[in-house]
Amino acid sequence: MAQQVQGVIAPGKNEAVRVETILVPDPGPGEAVVKIQACGVCHTDLHYKQGGINDDFPFLLGHEAAGVVESVGDGVTDVAPGDFVVLNWRAVCGQCRACLRGRPWYCFDTHNAKQKMTLLDGTELSPALGIGAFAEKTLVAAGQCTKVDPEVSPAVAGLLGCGVMAGIGAAINTGQVGRGDSVAVIGCGGVGDAAIAGARLAGAAKIIAVDIDDRKLETAKKMGATHTVNSRADDPVEAIRALTGGNGADVVIEAVGRPETYKQAFYARDLAGTVVLVGVPTPEMQLELPLLDVFGRGGSLKSSWYGDCLPSRDFPMLIDLHQQGRLDLGAFVTETIQLGEIEQAFARMHDGDVLRSVVVF
Ligand code: APR
Ligand code: ZN
Ligand code: ZN
């Protein structure tokens, strides 16, 4: 029987979010109901509310979550009731061209839950990024659940569901940062800071943080930046070159999502260096580059999609490193909040005051 729980709804374009009673159906074949313990507030939730992603209102927001599996539907074998899991955006098919080529993060045929969560009047809810975890319980495909060590705090585990994984993965998976590399990260919000933490984990010798906000640069140092550049004050390309013997960085990670910062990343890479775009541009953004500079500097220009992660490989691995004290995921949790405080969390995020506000249940 469907259960009634509290969830945070974005009712319409730019309307304030509100807590509502929602109905969560019993899990059907391949589905699971997860009791949510923590869920981070991400920019993407704000974009859903603003109508920046699509217009399938009302949305059930929240997608950076961890919790305990309550029940599973027919045919589910990978997870069982009682398992502590981190949720991911999409259950991949394992059979399409992308999956078969070992790049399931580009899966063409993802299977999220088939049933819908609804309002009490039957109105169907669109779950943010296929999850909808600003709710006491949510319905997902079982393939969206990755079991991790239950000893870790849910607020920390949930971070891996989106922004922190995107940043760490941009460094270790997409950028393939290696021991001794020089790495520059442009934009030091939650995603850029996670890229810095990832670069440190991978053994980078120099990690240059670039931002226009000195407060962000201070936090970046705590995450592992060895040098900082305020790009309001100094030309970041010149500064990165100066800090790398005139060469440029082996890997430059762009974590803003704007043409001008991408251009900086492009010119700040060493010969044969790698540029990783993890910041998400808007549809109208364009960038013109001299083709000769693409050719002449060599290397590669990549984009990173969800940190090019394999949840079943990367989530438990990063939690192990956190538990061992080699990666401080706790540093990304600025504050824990209640379900009714998401509008305030959006405001603080907009003002740049927090890395992550995390709703705990
Ligand atoms: N140069 C350098 N840094 C900049 C610039 C700029 N021109 N403009 C903004 N920034 C900095 C901000 O000061 C902030 O520290 O970029 C950072 C962006 O951080 P957040 O707004 O907290 O965003 P975050 O959650 O880190 O995501 C960054 O990655 O996944 C994507 O959609 C996400 O596009 C977004 C990007
Ligand atoms: Zn697939
Ligand atoms: Zn997110």
TrEMBL record:
Keyword Electron transport: yes or no? no
Q: Which SMART domains match?
A: PKS_ER
> Which InterPro entries does this one have?
ADH-like_C, ADH-like_N, ADH_Zn_CS, ER, GroES-like_sf, MycoS_dep_FDH, NAD(P)-bd_dom_sf
Q: Which cofactor does it need?
A: Zn(2+)
Going by the UniProt record, its keywords in alphabetical order are: Metal-binding, Oxidoreductase, Zinc
EC number(s) in its UniProt entry? 1.1.1.306
Under NCBIfam families, the record lists: mycoS_dep_FDH
Stored CDD domains: Zn_ADH_class_III
List residues of the Enoyl reductase (ER) domain: 12-359
Regarding protein family, the annotation reads: Belongs to the zinc-containing alcohol dehydrogenase family.
Q: What is this protein called?
A: S-(Hydroxymethyl)mycothiol dehydrogenase
Q: Which organism is it from?
A: Streptomyces sp. gb1(2016)
Spell out the Pfam families in the cross-references. ADH_N, ADH_zinc_N
Name the source's superkingdom: Bacteria
A molecular function (GO) held by this record is: zinc ion binding
Give the EC class as a word: oxidoreductase
